[in-house]
Structures are given as structure tokens and as C-alpha cells.
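Ticket #4471: complex job returned nothing on first submit. Input attached below:
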Amino acid sequence: MANRQERVHKITAPLRSMAQRFMFLFLLMSAVVILLFGKADPTVFERTRVAVIDTTAPVLEILSRPVATVAAFIKEIEQLAVLRGENAILRQENARLEVWQIRAQKFEEENVRLRDLLRYVPEPPATYVAARVVANSSGAFVRSLLVNAGSQDGIANGQAAVVGGNLIGRVAEVGQTSARILLMSDLNSRIPVLVAATRARAVLAGDNSPLQRLFYLSANAQVKRGDKVITSGHGGVFPAGLSIGIVTSIDQASVRVRPYVNWDFIEEVLLVDYESEVVSSALSDRYEQPVKLVGEKPTER
Amino acid sequence: MMNTVWQRLDVLARMLTPSLITGGLVILSVLPLHIPSYSSVVPSFALMSVFYWSLHRPDLLPAFTVFLVGILYDILTGGPMGVQACVLLGVYWVTGLQRQFLLGKSFLVVWWAFIMIAAAAEVLQWIIMSLIFATLIIPLSALFSFLQTAALYPLFARVFIRVQSTLPQVA
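Support reply: We reran it on our side without changes. The output follows.
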């Protein structure tokens, strides 16, 4: 009996190892094929990707909560230590801001009057969806976040992701209950921007480093260190005027921009729905009147 | 009867442990840990697991699991699909080749081998990524990620050794 088993083993062992080797080669080839197909057409695996993200997002969400709680707790302790000093600073800041508030109110009234005078078409109002970051899925080569809001919450590809009024990236993949945000530092990120002071147009591109580069800046554009960079709204996907960061270095090769937001600590993001149906219908209502007015003008004369 | 069913389930669960650990470590690597500059230099936990189990218990970590874990990693990080699968299968293969040599050697030798393999894996990944994006990617964060992976291996290996001691022996 034992002898027979041994004989069977003698025959099956090489077969087994061959099968294993074949399996390994097959898997490696599959990985390469997937890689090439994905490279040729990035949308090929989109459904699979989205399905996987949708199923893992709840798990990630559950797991990320205790981590966030611990992080918040540590932060709280750190803050306790500097509470007094911070309080004094905040009081000063508050006094300064109150002055600003008064000025802002004045400006706003003035703005409304001037817009009326000019018959200015206002920016369409945007709606915001707040989402929790469930995975900071950046690696050494990719920079992105997963959030717990998806198409059922009105999230769509290309929407701007904002933290504290500053742009951090755009929505790049949408599942039903989850979405991926491609951060500005990712290699694939290209954002149309303006240098706020001179209104010089450029494209902000990520290159996998903490600072982003300005591309397509016209040769005679005046840019200096400390200039603010904002979204230009060109391309119509992002609202114009979202702040992004400041120019930190200028040399022959490149102009570099440091983003305002440090994405290591992001817990929630706002996703800006700039073109949803509700908004666009409101938009057409708004557009109608000024357009009419412009049309009526010649007849008035 | 009841007992044997439970025993079988128990054995099955133990057999699956290396695969589950590897998958779990992928999840761990994308959790937002709120540590400064951590996210861009996350060590490759999955690589440690694939190396360890394909060295010590290759029978419990089939190539197919390695493939799946790689795909999962690519999807969760949003990278091009297949890259991590290629890299991890490469690690699996090379470790298998060195298995006879490494088994029974001191931990330092194994660690050294791991460092070599992890470095090769990072370089391979950098090459694939640079080809895909048709640009020379700044390799700084890949370097830091590799250093972390290399430095943290002994810690993870200790946990893996603990787990391994609870696993049933080869049938």
C-alpha cells in the first residue's frame, strides 16, 4: 500500500511542479497583458476597478475610523499644550478679521451695484458634497485619495476636490458609493491655472514631487516668487478662482508651485459640483435675463 | 463528527492565513494614518509578506493569490493595473529560486536577501512606471519607500514567525 502511494507520488510530483510552473507563467503573462491593455485603453478595466473600490470602500471606512480617532486624539493633546498662546493669537486675528468683515460687506455691496451697472453674468453657483477620506492610497508612484461618496451622491468625473477653499485635485474614478480623487501632485494631473497677479495662463502639472510645475507659461509672462496661483476655469470643469498655492521657485527649467494644503492630514474633502442639472437649469434661468437685455439693447437705441 | 468538522474548518482557516495576511497588509498600506509625508513613502507591506511566505510556506501562498493581491493593490492605489501583480509575482519567483539556499540560514542572511529582492522590485516598478508614463519619474519617494520596507522587515518577520508557528505542517 505504502509502496503504491510512493509510486503514485513519484509520477505526480513532477507533473505537479510542472503545473505550478505553468500556472506561474500564465499568471505573469496575464499581468503583463492586463498592463498592456490598460495602457492602450485605460477605460478597459474601469468597471472592474470601480466594482473593487466600491466593495472595499466600506471595509476601509470602518478601518480608517479608529485610526482617525487616534490621530485626532494626538492632535488634541498637542493643541492643549499650545492653547493659551493660540488663544491670544486668535484674539488678535479676530480683531483684524472684524475690520475685514466690515470692509468685505462694503465691497460686496459695491460689487452688486457695479455688476448691475455692467450687467455682469454671475458665475454659476456650485453645490458641494462633503466626503470622508477612507484611504490615502498614494504610493511612491501614484497620488490619490479614496472618499466615501459616489455617483449616488452626485459625484462625477472631473469635479474639483477642495479642502478649506483650496483645490487639492479632481475626481478621477467614480463608483456608486466611493470615488477616487487624483491629487495635484500625481503624474497624470493637469490643471488649467492663472497666476493671480498677472492673469498669466498656465497648466499646473504634477510630477510625483511635493511641488507642482507650471507648464505652457508664455515666455513674456511675469511671474515672481510668492505669486498666488488659482484655477482659471478654462475647460469649464473647475470653477474659476479656487486657490491652489504659491510660486516658490523659478529657474531656467521650471516654475514650481507649493500647494496650500498638506494632504497628509486630510480627513474630509468638499467635492464641487459645478455643472449638475439642478445648477445648470438655475444657470439657464440666470443667463436668460442678461442675454435678453443684451438683445434688447439695439432696439432701445 | 461535529468535532472533526470544526477541526477541518480550523485547519482551513489556518491554511488561508498567509493569503489573508497578505491581502490585509494591502488594505493596511492604503489606510490614512495621518503621519506627515507618510503617504508618499508607504513601505510595501505586501512585498514583505509575499517574500516571507514564499520562502517559508510556499504551499500556503499560491501564485494565484499573489496575482490577486497585486491587482487589488493596483486598484486601491489607483495605479495602472498589472504593475504590482508583475512585481509581486517577480518577487515570488526569485524568492522561490533562492529558497534552497536561504532556508536554514541566519536571519541576517535572509534579511540581506530580502533587501536585495526589495531593491530589485522597486527598480523594476520604477522602470515599468516610467515606461508607462513615458517620463523619468523622480525616484525619491520610491527610494524612501524601499528604505522603509527594508528597515521594517525584521519587525514584520517576527510577527510572521509567530503566525507560522500556529500553522499546520505540510501534509
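The radius of gyration of chain A is 27 Å. Closing as resolved unless it happens again.
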